[in-house]
Amino acid sequence: MQAIYLNQKGGAESLMLGNLPQPQPQAGEVLVKVHATAVTPTEFQWYPTFSTPSGEARPFPIVLSHEFSGMVAALGAGVENFKIGEAVYGLNDWFANGAQAEYVVAPASALALKPRLLNHAQSAVVPISALTAWQGLLERAGLRAGQRILIHGAAGGVGIFAVQLARWRGAHVIATASANNLNFCRLLGADTVIDYQATRFEDAVRGVDVVFDTVGGETLARSWNVLKPGGKLVTVADGGAHADEQRVRDAFMLVRADGCQLKQIAFLIDAGDLRVFVEKEFPLSQAREACARARQGKMRGKIVLSVSK
User: What does the pLDDT average to over 118-130?
Assistant: First the structure.
């Protein structure tokens, strides 16, 4: 199969285009013919990218990108909830080879039928961001109707889904973003928007039930003071797992694959409750250019690699 891969530890400049053996699904797994995959430029710094779960170096070649949309090509033993030819979306194990390739293997439990109203490029940008927002807001924070939530980085990849899910949940949504994204956040469903470059959010809001942080650093440190007694803070920002403060480590979460939740997310998308945004689509052969664009930031949505039609 054709794939983009790394043969050495490095950044986007080390990506190569070539042929690799097609993976085969094991028991409980699904082989997916990839139509599109989303680009996450920070993946070059992730621990699982170059390490095994036991801490050893992962063998090369290494294929990046773990969220994807495509068609079921083959089923491993015991998989009964999918059929060959069905359109699915999902994500696979962080320690496994990803979807910048014509085929990828994923556990059946990490997949769902893709949203009917979306094409493959649009579906590919959903899994990581939407699941992060779902698990952070609904599982970790237990967000309920009528509560007030402050969402940092509301116009970012995860924030876009967090604002929409919080609105769908019936919460009062307060969003921080740059000036040129304030109207965009209102469009997503934010009730109150704060230009973080012009106003310190703690001067504009107090006593919120939940803070959902995608920014980290000083923004996270200042957020504790706006919580009401008993309020909850959830952060998905890099570095939270290794923070000095125990409360930050406790607030940090990593997304996990969950096909049942992806099924619910697809239902919300098809019902018109969640909108999906793609910044730009590149062909697989332009993976380096796609990574460069993703690193620039200032996007509404994600960068997508189109693998096959």
Answer: 98
Measured CA to CA, the distance from residue 139 to residue 87 in angstroms comes to: 27
Every domain of the chain and the residues it spans: 2-126+276-306, 129-251
Query: What's the pTM value of the predicted model, to 2 decimals?
Result: 0.96
DSSP at 245:
S
**What is the Cα 96 distance to its own chain's centre?**
17
- CATH T-level fold of 129-251: Rossmann fold (3.40.50)
pLDDT of residue 243: 78
E-state strands within the chain: 2-6, 15-19, 29-38, 67-75, 87-91, 103-107, 111-113, 148-151, 172-177, 192-195, 208-213, 227-235, 278-283, 302-306
CB atoms within 10 A of CB 267: 14
Residues 6+ apart with CB under 8 A from 215: 152, 153, 237
User: Taking CA 65 as the corner, what is the angle to CA 278 and CA 296, rounded to the nearest 5 degrees?
Assistant: 50
CATH superfamily of 2-126+276-306: Medium-chain alcohol dehydrogenases, catalytic domain (3.90.180.10)
Three-class HEC string of 64-93: CCCEEEEEEEEECCCCCCCCCCCEEEEECC
